[in-house]
Amino acid sequence: MGLSRASLGFLGLFFMAGSILLIFLTLLAGTRNTTPLNQVYFLQADTGNIPGAPSTSRWTFWNLCGVTDGGKNDCGSSHPAFPLDPPSHRNFDTTDNVPSQFIGTNHYFLMTRFMFPFIIIGLFFAVVSLFTGLLAMCTRIGSYLSGFVAWLALTFQVITTCLMTAVYVQARHAFNSNGQNSKLGVKAFAFMWTASACLFLSCLMYCLGGAVGRKDDGYSGRKERRRGFFNSARSNSVRSQKESYA
User: Fold this and answer.
1) What CATH number does the domain containing 157 carry?
2) Domains in the chain, number
3) Is residue 235 part of a domain?
4) pLDDT attached to residue 1
5) Per-residue pLDDT tens for 55-80?
6) Does 141 map to a domain?
7) Residue 5 has pLDDT above 90, yes or no
8) Hey, which of 15, 78, 225, 228 would disulfide with 198, CB 3.0 to 4.6 Å?
9) Model-level pTM?
10) What's the whole-number mean pLDDT along residues 119-138?
């Protein structure tokens, strides 16, 4: 038995709400040293041999954090669109013991900078789609409108996630090749890729809701036209019989 437009609209809302929650958890990581935000980061590296750097460093959207004895983020003041750029004054302000891959290039700086506006734009469209999703449960136009906005959110979310994956995987290799053990933040990557999958499912549910509505409306319209045709034919037949008897 197929799902109704209301059911598909509700599923679209459910997946959209889940994606927004995951995006917020990743986006706000580093802004406060509270659970669960103090457990989310993009990259962790051993930087104890870099002058002025903490023994272990973690990068988030907002700052460069140290690590507490309990393995949590120890972040200071927040700066939006905080870049991964170890040699610059934004990170360590030195080239001593910094991997050579980071020196003399803006590659890491630009890629991590662009992540921030893309995720904000994607989050904006996701929130808009969440509200228009209420209409998707009632109308076919609301379903298609929500699906289109969800598709925009998915586009920017995928761009952000791909940039994040590419740049931080490269950075991990750079630190490891320099003898500084590093690893990716499992939670941040899991949240971002899962959010992308939820956005895709939400977009799919909204579009299916519109298609189901169109099919039902078309069937009802054909049924009404067929009923009208037969009623008209029956009326004409009865009228003809009455005229012949007269």
Assistant:
1) 1.20.140.150
2) 1
3) no
4) 42
5) 999 999 999 999 999 999 999 999 99
6) yes
7) no
8) 15
9) 0.84
10) 95
